[in-house]
């Protein structure tokens, strides 16, 4: 049973204008959320679920790193992981418990 999920929101959410949909996912699951550095501003920072900007081992605030590192399930929405956004791919993600949703505009 999943007790401590987290949603990571990334820059593709902006590209696809899916901010409201991402917020609905977070609220439906009732879980914490973080944004990637290039996704800053895509989730309301005054929302009770918001935990910060996740950049691997240097997430701001430190609570952000803990939220991701202690989750038992992770939903990644529109994040493009790079050495920049993860500070050298030093992430605390448990990939076996992660679902990654990439967003692309279909013509």
TrEMBL record:
- GO cellular-component term (any): cytosol
**InterPro entries (UniProt xref):** DHS-like_NAD/FAD-binding_dom, PDC/IPDC-like, Thiamin_PyroP_enz_cen_dom
Sorted UniProt keywords = Magnesium, Metal-binding, Thiamine pyrophosphate
Classification via Pfam families: TPP_enzyme_M
Query: Gene3D superfamilies annotated for this entry?
Result: TPP-binding domain
> Which parts of the sequence belong to the Thiamine pyrophosphate enzyme central domain?
3-102
> Coiled-coil annotation: which residues?
none
**Gene Ontology BP term (one):** aromatic amino acid family catabolic process to alcohol via Ehrlich pathway
An example of a GO molecular function for this protein is: magnesium ion binding
Q: Which cofactor does it need?
A: thiamine diphosphate
Which PANTHER family does the entry mention?
A: PYRUVATE DECARBOXYLASE (PTHR43452), PYRUVATE DECARBOXYLASE C186.09-RELATED (PTHR43452:SF1)
Q: Which family does the similarity line name?
A: Belongs to the TPP enzyme family.
User: By what name is this protein known?
Assistant: Thiamine pyrophosphate enzyme central domain-containing protein
What species is this protein from? Chara braunii
């Amino acid at each position: 049973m999943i007790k401590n999920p987290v949603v990571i929101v990334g820059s593709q959410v902006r590209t696809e204008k899916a901010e409201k949909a991402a917020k609905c996912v977070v609220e439906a699951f009732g879980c914490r959320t973080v944004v990637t550095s290039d996704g800053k501003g895509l989730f309301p920072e005054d929302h009770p679920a918001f935990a910060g900007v996740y950049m691997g081992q240097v997430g701001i605030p430190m609570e952000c790193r803990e939220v991701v590192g202690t989750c038992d399930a992770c939903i990644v929405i529109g994040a493009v992981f790079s050495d920049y956004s993860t500070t050298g791919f030093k992430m605390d993600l448990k990939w076996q418990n992660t679902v990654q949703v990439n967003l692309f505009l279909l013509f």
